[in-house]
Amino acid sequence: MKTIAITIDEDILIRIDKLAGNGDGGGNRSKVIREAVREYLSRVEQVAEEGREGEIFRRHRTQLRRQAVALVKEQAKP
Question: pTM of this prediction?
């Protein structure tokens, strides 16, 4: 783990301190900030991945549509 310095608005710091000191084992400021950054990065990465997957689907939509139709026809056979 590395120690860094950041500048943060006072109102946000007050909110972090409330979370960190609420008595439920939430830890300290650093822990709250680490967890918030980790969650934010996960969400950003997930959105990026969904964008890449969406582009793949758009690029191959004709082929996927044909395959889906063929699969439904195959499953509909007695």
Answer: 0.66
